[in-house]
Write a structure and sequence with these properties.
globular, 6 strands, alpha+beta
Length: 149
């Protein structure tokens, strides 16, 4: 378990460094981009512990199907999801900073298998991040399915 946690932390640091070299991504905005990528990786690997570190205790989450859950519901769903072989990537991501708050918008592409059936989804997302005691945490997330481009 320690090796997995250490690997995840190294992964997060590498994402932060990579995001800092992205155009128009500086400081806190680059950190948030790295956290968004870490979130995708944690979901792909059903890593509830990593997700727990990214999400505020007060998280509210509205999924593409209209379901609405709190943090514990989201973590339980991620950990016990019937989805296998998930790949989740973002593009067209924008971070708008508001002091110790940020709003992230973008497009996500998700593929996987659920109950033996292959699926692919494309959606838009909005995540709201707040810096609490020096740590960025997501406090709200919402996704909406869109037609694939």
């Amino acid at each position: 378990m320690r090796i997995a946690l250490a690997s995840f932390l190294i992964f997060c640091v590498s994402l932060t460094l990579a995001a800092q070299s992205a155009p128009n991504a500086t400081g806190d905005a680059a950190t948030i981009l790295a956290l968004e990528n870490a979130w995708n990786q944690a979901e792909e690997h059903k890593d509830a512990r990593a997700l727990d570190e990214l999400l505020a205790d007060s998280l509210v989450y509205t999924d593409w199907d209209g379901s609405f859950v709190n943090k514990s519901g989201f973590l339980d769903s991620a950990k016990n999801s019937p989805v296998q072989d998930m790949v989740l990537v973002n593009d067209d991501v924008h971070v708008d900073m508001y002091g110790d708050s940020a709003v992230v918008t973008g497009v996500y592409h998700e593929k996987g298998q659920e109950r033996g059936r292959t699926y692919a989804r494309t959606g838009r997302f909005t995540d709201t991040w707040v810096k609490q005691k020096g740590t960025w945490l997501c406090v709200a997330s919402q996704s909406t399915l869109v037609a694939a481009k």
